[in-house]
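Please decode residue identities from the backbone states below.
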């Protein structure tokens, strides 16, 4: 069985019957949608999705900064007026 990334789950049949209930159940945590006891997808609240996207953006910025650190010594200084 695939790893589940949530403690909350809903069957795909139940999701078809009452999708609003699945979103209400999500709250601040992901809900895994199961199809034949296998994860088919996840339902996320807007607030959780926004937090995940912020974390992903932070990671991308940090990775770019780490890549550029070795070239910092060769960078030239500029004033705010030059920007």
């Amino acid at each position: 069985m695939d790893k589940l990334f949530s403690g909350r789950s809903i069957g795909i049949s139940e999701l078809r019957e009452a999708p609003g209930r699945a979103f209400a159940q999500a709250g601040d945590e992901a809900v895994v949608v199961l199809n034949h006891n296998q994860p088919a997808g996840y339902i996320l609240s807007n607030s959780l999705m926004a937090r995940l996207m912020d974390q992903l953006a932070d990671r991308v910025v940090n990775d770019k900064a780490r890549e550029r650190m070795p070239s910092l010594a060769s960078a030239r200084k500029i004033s705010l007026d030059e920007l």
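Observation: The mean pLDDT is 90.
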